Amino acid sequence: MPPIIALFLSMSMYLNAIFNTKKMRDVLLFIKNNHNYYANRPEKLILRYYDVQGRKITLYYALYVYTTVVAYITIPAISLLIDFIIPSNHSEEKSFPIELDYGVDTQHYFYYLFIHSYMTIAMIANLIASCDTTYMLYAQHGCALFAIVSYELRTVHILDASSLINLKDHRLFENYKNIELLPEDEKKICTKLFLCIKEYQNAIRYCNLVESLFAKSIFVQLFFNVVCLSIAGVETVMKLGNAADTIRFGSFTFAQVAHIFVLCFPGQRLLNHSEEVYNAACDAMWYIFPKKCHNLYKFLLARTLIFSKITAFKVATMSMETFLAIIQTAMSYFTVLLSTT
């Protein structure tokens, strides 16, 4: 049953990509234009840092997905290989990695159906890994845009801040808190603040586009994940007497938890980076801005109080708080199902 639910989950991800092709193209154009815009600016270092970080995260996640799939499908293959190398006197019914009804004699056509089931599982795993890594990379780019805006807000009063790009040490800004602006520098400060506001609007538009792209799909995925986690947990408990099946269903159960985490964690990071823009706006040296910039700063500060986020069809915000709530809900269903078996 859980593998069938995983099939529907992967189909929902695939259909989301098919029906939102235009939005995906718009997101990719956004990313391309942003890279071109920052290509000759110091902020490209921030963009590059988040790109490398996103590449590592997606690589580790893809390796995890494929490792989990290998763990799930290897045990039936090993038992089949042992029977092939060391034939036994009594014939046992051969098992598939997943239970399916093909409408034919499965033992007679075993090897054909066995290869088909393995290919299907590999395709599903590849689809899930591809869609999830795409989601994580899109959210990661949104984090990069907010990080750039935060950096520019903290250095808006510094005419040459190219040497202050350090994502791990914000103490570098301390030496520039008590500087005095010359009259000829006031116009440059206003221009920097105006550009910063434009880049903030660009980041908000990008995050709204990403949210609209994944909101419905995430809602459907979470529904299937909760159902699959509850049922897989029950099957794991029921198979405790069989070590091989316990490992298979246990790894599958943990994979559901990991997938829910993957849906929530990028949303939490995006929310944190959006909140960081507000903190950066509060840290800005607004009191040394020219008076004509004060109204711009007030509107910016008011807007930063509205945080960008990714939601599950406007029902729940993707965050670690939502992750814990979903796990608790799934455990409640698991307890109920276990008590009825």
Kindly summarize this structure in a few lines:
This protein is mainly alpha-helical and 341 residues long.
Pick out the low-confidence regions.
none
Number of domains: 1
- DSSP, total strands: 0
Q: Strand count, sense and closure of the main sheet?
A: none
- Kindly state the percentage of residues in helix: over 70%
Rg to the nearest angstrom?
Answer: 26 Å
Outline the structure in words.
The chain is an all-alpha fold. It has helices at 2-19, 21-37, 44-85, 110-154, 186-238, 243-283, 294-303, 320-340. The protein is elongated, with a radius of gyration of 26 Å. The model has no long low-confidence stretch (mean pLDDT 88).
Key features?
transmembrane; mainly alpha; 341 residues; 72% helix
Topology:
Layout: H1 2-19, H2 21-37, H3 44-85, H4 110-154, H5 186-238, H6 243-283, H7 294-303, H8 320-340
GO molecular function: odorant binding; olfactory receptor activity
Family: Belongs to the insect chemoreceptor superfamily. Heteromeric odorant receptor channel (TC 1.A.69) family.
Signal peptide: 1-17
